[in-house]
Design a protein that fits this description.
Elements (H helix, E strand, L loop, with lengths): L4 H14 L3 H17 L1
Length: about 40
């Protein structure tokens, strides 16, 4: 299930951007970066 995390985060990021929810977009981005760093 861990492999799905980036996809879920990407979906969250895309919908946040669509809704112009920049705070949520920033959180999703930082989570994606953390995921890539610690993989």
């Amino acid at each position: 299930m861990e492999n799905d995390e980036p996809n879920i985060l990407r979906d969250v990021l895309e919908s946040a951007i669509r809704n112009e929810n920049w705070k949520l977009a920033q959180i999703a981005l930082s989570q994606l970066k953390k995921y890539r760093l610690f993989r």
